[in-house]
Amino acid sequence: MARIFSGIQPSGELHIGNYLGAVKNWVALQHTAESIFCIVDYHAIIAAYEPAQLRIRRHEMALGLLAAGIDPTVSTLFVQSDVPEHTELAWIFNTVTPLGELERQTQFKDKSQRMESVSAGLLNYPILQAADILLYRADRVPVGEDQLQHLELSRVIARRWNAEFAADEAYFPEPQPVLTPTRRIMGLDGQSKMSKSMGNTIGLLETREAIWAKLRPAVTDPKRIKKTDPGTPEVCNIYHLHKAFSPPETVEHVAVQCSTAGWGCIDCKKVLAESMETELVPIRSRAAALREDPARVQSALDAGADKCRALARETIRGVRERMGFDG
Ligand code: AMP
Ligand code: TRP
Prior knowledge:
- This protein is mainly alpha-helical.
- The chain folds into two domains: about 5-185 and about 295-325, 3-Layer(aba) Sandwich (Rossmann fold), CATH 3.40.50; about 205-285, Tyrosyl-Transfer RNA Synthetase (Orthogonal Bundle), CATH 1.10.240.10.
- About 55% of the residues lie in helices and about 5% in strands.
- It has twelve helices and five strands.
- The chain has a three-stranded parallel β-sheet, with helices on both faces. The protein has a two-stranded parallel ribbon with strand order 4-5.
- Strand 4 (about 140), helix 7 and strand 5 (about 175-180) form a beta-alpha-beta unit.
- Helix 3 (about 85-95) packs across helix 6 (about 120-135) and helix 6 (about 120-135) crosses helix 7 (about 150-165).
- The longest helix is centred in the C-terminal third of the chain and has 30 residues, at about 295-325.
- The radius of gyration is 21 Å and the shape is globular.
- The structure holds adenosine monophosphate and tryptophan (TRP).
């Protein structure tokens, strides 16, 4: 049976970018294959952070994922640092990863340019990611478009380790990405990818009023200055959000109204806000129930960690044996 694995950083909040690009797919795919989802807290400590905040964000992320529809009776949800084998395998993979491959990663290049001091952790980040995936010998990894290069590197690492230590058995399968139709959601600025670090997000659990306060001034088609100017839906971020949240008839109607200047951008945004409400209300209410019962979140994570520790131990046993550490 195919195994799905994916991870998310405990950045504190799910936003509609990581929800539409990845998590919504996790929720759908969990019923089609054995699924393991990981809150990657060791990835989150690469830049300076506050330990007390990390604790809160880990819990918030778990709560958000359960509210979004991850069902802990169907799939496995756990915290990376609860399973020490992730870092053990990452060290091993360090030794078979060419430095040039790491230096070529666009995320490393972008982030290292923006940072004053660059830790070795930032460079080695994709090795830990490869360890996350390969530790469970997962074959499919649902992610957003920005992770494709990291996944390619995971395949390179699997191939190199297999060639070196398990020549005729492909011990590690080469993991393939699974994308959603909304593989890259832009931020409200319409300029860069929606991400917490850019401050251009809409949180999945935000109230209707808070969402409207952000949608109202959000960037649309930059060429549409007056309400009477016809717009070009394809270049408008709001239109792309309609495609993600509104039913097909509405999307078609929006395109016509925009390109004929039938609606102004605010009219269009009001309809989007309604479509978002339809999808987000049940998520918000599950989140509220989970907030009343934090033990439920923790027990899902504990059960997930128990299960993953057993799987991870088994993989590492095979790795150590093939690398000459045991016996
Ligand atoms: P992160 O929140 O950065 O840990 O990302 C978690 C998952 O969401 C990864 O699979 C990312 O590729 C995906 N993701 C994050 N931001 C976006 C975005 N703006 N558009 C599409 N996918 C995204
Ligand atoms: N690097 C991913 C991100 O920032 C998070 C991640 C860590 C991940 N380990 C993973 C994603 C394993 C998929 C599989 O979004």
